[in-house]
Each structure stands twice: as structure tokens, then as C-alpha cells.
């Protein structure tokens, strides 16, 4: 079945698995580490990347393959690799084309874990990372591109400030320099936004969030658009012989899918951040309801953002589809189906009042998570972005009084009532 011919809300239900006559209708869990072969030469061809197939589940697995195919179809890519976490996906996406002595240009409005990965861990590996304000004009951004820059990185919807990426600006910036634009599409999901249609080259996901949707399985995914031309002299790891595979040249062997095949064949093989078959099965099951969940998340979030913006005890609200959002015009362009389910806001009275609010919610819960079907709140400055300096927090869009509200799919009036009673606890 050519699932690319179908709409996104059909793809999330059925893509990735097309059972034959007499096979299980629901994609089964292949809880096996190994695979039987009758011919030694056939196994040799697998090891030489000359044939397709599974040989060891650290590298590939049929259940993970179902999920990979579904995400690749929904994103419009040529292939995908699932990983043990979203952090692992981001790490592999960068390390696949960047090594010690090279440079990555990142937007500053990133998830705290990504900021730490880029600014601390990759730095310790010898990779230089520069964080810049995503609102800078293109001509100012150009000055941060270096001869050794290997990618531009940003988020479709920034976490937690919920500002929308300017795809046109960042794709121009990257492609002028002959490097790919890597986009974290976690908050939007491929149901709300397909970054490849707007100039992105590589997409990463924390599948832990909306794709799973039920807070049951940690995972990540890297997706390759197949559209970037790696033959520009900047990426010898893809265009020159790899002696670890008897001189294979990935661009010659795999064509438009060179990037994703190299990632699987080298980094997943050697570093081992593999998604378990059970987590892949759970995530695939969660994705079957992605469209209906995201529609409800978006509707609830917009209604609650409007309610909060009008509340006398709320100081400010950030949500992409509010006209007051600095990226409202971008949201109109890139998020036609909805602005996702995340709201950032501050209550009058500052940090103390915000913590009082968080401690007072009853239906919503305080958890270090976002993007499942239940409503959650947290305080980014003291939680998810705690490792960053105050200066770095501000640069990331994390204000001291910011509350991140992950809107669930509960009845919107029930959520509103919970917010109202919690706000009422704050002393004027």
C-alpha cells in the first residue's frame, strides 16, 4: 500500500503495517534479538549493507520498523530510525554529520535538555555550538555561520516559550551555507506541521510526547527528507569510502537515503541507543489516535489561552494562535490545523504566585512531562531549565514567572474550572 497517497489522519491509523492474507491485523511485537538465516553469504551481505533485512535488534527490528515507516510516511521522508529517547535522536542527528572541531548553529529557544546536550555534552566532545536569538533578522544570523558549521538546529514550536519557527528564514540561512536544517518537530507532530514541506532537511522527535500520547514509553526518532544534496564537499563521511564497511560510499550505495542509512549502520550500531520493540509497539498504538487527540489538544488549548489572557490574575500568555503572539503570522502559515497543546503564561505576583498556582491545581498535575492526554503544569525556570544560568534561561525565552501548561484532552470546562480555583488561591 502506498500510504503517502492518503491524508495524515489516515496515515497515523494505518501506515507502516500492511498485513498479508491470514496475518495479524494489529502489528505484532517481535520480541526477539536475533533472526535466523540459512545461507552464510546472505548474512555477509547484510553486514556489508548490500542487502536489506534484520540481523540484530540493536540495529533494526520489525516492530520498530513499523513505527519508523509510519513516522517517515507522515513526515514525507525517505526513511527513519527510532531511538531510545528524544535526546538520543537529537544526539545521533548531529553526530551523524558533525565531529570534533566542527560547529552547530542553534536557535536559543530550545528545550532545556536539548540546550544542555548541545551546550555542554557536545562541547565536551569537541563540537562548538552557538546559540542565537531566533528573532534576529537573516542578515544578522549570517554572521554566525562559520566555515566549519555543519547544521542549523531549531524547534518547530519552541519549548517552553511556544514561539513558531520561521522556516523560510532558517532554511535560507542553512542552504546558503550548504548545510542542512535540522528541526525538532515534537510539539507540532507531523499531523500539525511537516517541516520538509517548508525547507527542513532532517526532523527529530521525542516520541515520548504526543506520538505516544499516553506517557507510557520513552523514545525518539530521526527522519531523513532525502532532499539534501550531500555532495558539496562538506560531508566526506557520506561521500567518501567508509573503511568500517569495506569502503562503502553511502551516497552511492543509498542515494537519497544516504544520511539515514549511515546513521543506522554506524551510530545506532556503535552507540546502541535502540528503541525496544515493546516501546515501539506502544508508540505505534498511541499514534493511531494522534489526529483525534491533537484536534482536541489544539481546541482546548486555544480556548484556555483566550480564557487566561482575559483573566485579571494572569500577567501574560504565550500561545501561537493568539494574535498577541510574536509568531502569530508564522503560526497562520505553518500550523493551519492548530497551535498544539502547550501554553506558556505568568501570573501576577511573580514566581511565588506561580508556584502557589502550581501547588493549587487539582485536575492538572505537576509532572516533568508534556504532551500526553492529561493536563500538566510545571515551572521551567526551576525544573526543566534549572541547569541553565539565569542569562541563558532568558535567552531561551524562559522567564522567571513562566508556567508551562500542557493542555490535556479532558473536558475543557473542567480544565477551566481547575484553573479558576487555582488562580483564586493567589492573593491579590
N-to-C SSE series?
A: HHHEHEHEHEHEHEEHHHHHEHEHEEHEH
Uncertain segments of ≥5 residues (pLDDT<50)?
none
Provide the structure class. alpha/beta
* H/I helix tally: 17
DSSP summary, beta strand count = 12
Beta-strand residue fraction: 5-15%
Q: What is the CATH class of the largest domain? A: Alpha Beta
Second CATH tier, the architecture of the largest domain: 3-Layer(aba) Sandwich
Chain-averaged pLDDT: 94
Characterization of this structure:
This protein is α/β, with parallel strands linked by helices. The protein folds into 2 domains: 3-286, 3-Layer(aba) Sandwich (Aspartate Aminotransferase, domain 2), CATH 3.40.640.10; 290-424, Aspartate Aminotransferase, domain 1 (Alpha-Beta Complex), CATH 3.90.1150.10. The protein has 17 helices and 12 strands. The protein has helices spanning 8-14, 40-47, 62-75, 86-95, 112-124, 138-141, 167-176, 189-192, 236-239, 250-254, 258-271, 277-287, 290-309, 328-334, 350-360, 390-395, 412-424; strands at 79-83, 103-107, 128-132, 149-155, 181-184, 202-206, 220-224, 314-318, 342-347, 365-366, 376-378, 403-406. The strands form 2 sheets. A 7-stranded mixed beta sheet has the order 1-7-6-5-4-2-3, sandwiched between helices. Strands 8-9-12-11-10 form a 5-stranded mixed beta sheet. It is globular, with a radius of gyration of 22 Å. The mean pLDDT is 94.
Amino acid at each position: 500500500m502506498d500510504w503517502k497517497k492518503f491524508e495524515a489522519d489516515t496515515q497515523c491509523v494505518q501506515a507502516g503495517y500492511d498485513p498479508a492474507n491470514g496475518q495479524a491485523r494489529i502489528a505484532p511485537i517481535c520480541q526477539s534479538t536475533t533472526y535466523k538465516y540459512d545461507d552464510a553469504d546472505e548474512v555477509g551481505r547484510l553486514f556489508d549493507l548490500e542487502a536489506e533485512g534484520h540481523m540484530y535488534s540493536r540495529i533494526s527490528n520489525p516492530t520498530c520498523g513499523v513505527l519508523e515507516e509510519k513516522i517517515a510516511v507522515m513526515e514525507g521522508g525517505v526513511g527513519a530510525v527510532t531511538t531510545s529517547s528524544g535526546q538520543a535522536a537529537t544526539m545521533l542527528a548531529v553526530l551523524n554529520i558533525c565531529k570534533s572541531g566542527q560547529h552547530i548553529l542553534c536557535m536559543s529557544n530550545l528545550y532545556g535538555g536539548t540546550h544542555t546536550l548541545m551546550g555542554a555534552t557536545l562541547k565536551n566532545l569537541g563540537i562548538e555550538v552557538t546559540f542565537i536569538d531566533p528573532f534576529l533578522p537573516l542578515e544578522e544570523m549570517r554572521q554566525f555561520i562559520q566555515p566549519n558549521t555543519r547544521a542549523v538546529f531549531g524547534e518547530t514550536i519552541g519549548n517552553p516559550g511556544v514561539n513558531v519557527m520561521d522556516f523560510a528564514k532558517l532554511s535560507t540561512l542553512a542552504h546558503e551555507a550548504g548545510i542542512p536544517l535540522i528541526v525538532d518537530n515534537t510539539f507540532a507532530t507531523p499531523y500539525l506541521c511537516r517541516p520538509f514541506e517548508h525547507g527542513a532537511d532532517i526532523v527529530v522527535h521525542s516520541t515520548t510526547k504526543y506520538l505516544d500520547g499516553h506517557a507510557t514509553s520513552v523514545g525518539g526518532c530521526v527522519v531523513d527528507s532525502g532532499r539534501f544534496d550531500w555532495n558539496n564537499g562538506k560531508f566526506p563521511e557520506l561521500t567518501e569510502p567508509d573503511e568500517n564497511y569495506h569502503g562503502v560510499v553511502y551516497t552511492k550505495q543509498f542515494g537519497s537515503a544516504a544520511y539515514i542509512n549511515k546513521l543506522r549502520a554506524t551510530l545506532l550500531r556503535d552507540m546502541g541507543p535502540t528503541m525496544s520493540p515493546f516501546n515501539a509497539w506502544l508508540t505505534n498504538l498511541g499514534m493511531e489516535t494522534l489526529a483525534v487527540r491533537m484536534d482536541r489538544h489544539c481546541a482546548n488549548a486555544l480556548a484556555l489561552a483566550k480564557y487566561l489572557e482575559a483573566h485579571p490574575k494572569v500577567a501574560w500568555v504565550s500561545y501561537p494562535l493568539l494574535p498577541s503572539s510574536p509568531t502569530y503570522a508564522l503560526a497562520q502559515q505553518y500550523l493551519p490545523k492548530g497551535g498544539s497543546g502547550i501554553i506558556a503564561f505568568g501570573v501576577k505576583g511573580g514566581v511565588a504566585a506561580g508556584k502557589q498556582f502550581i501547588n493549587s491545581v487539582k485536575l492538572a498535575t505537576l509532572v516533568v512531562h508534556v504532551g500526553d492526554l492529561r493536563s500538566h503544569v510545571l515551572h521551567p525556570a526551576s525544573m526543566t531549565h534549572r541547569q541553565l544560568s539565569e542569562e541563558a534561561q532568558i535567552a531561551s525565552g524562559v522567564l522567571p514567572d513562566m508556567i508551562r501548561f500542557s493542555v490535556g484532552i479532558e473536558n475543557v470546562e473542567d480544565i477551566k474550572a481547575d484553573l479558576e480555583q487555582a488562580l483564586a488561591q493567589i492573593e491579590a
